[in-house]
Amino acid sequence: MNTQDRIRNRQSYKEFSGLLKFYNKNPKPSTFLKRIHATIDRHNGFRSETNSYYAMESLKQLIQDKGLR
Length: 69
Description:
This protein has helices spanning about 5-10, 10-25, 30-40, 50-65. By secondary structure, it is an all-alpha fold. The radius of gyration is 15 Å and the shape is flat. The chain has one domain (about 5-65).
């Protein structure tokens, strides 16, 4: 198996590919941002449930402030 095939089999490649596929369906910006949060959260990227909650709280405030749909 060559390097490119090994990269394509990585979980990170599949996650990015899934985000791109979702993005190409032209979701509302707020929906896409929430999907990114969920992806980070699924990989424990916020390090704790509290940090995840605060990140979502920040995201919701951003959506409201920017008037995103």
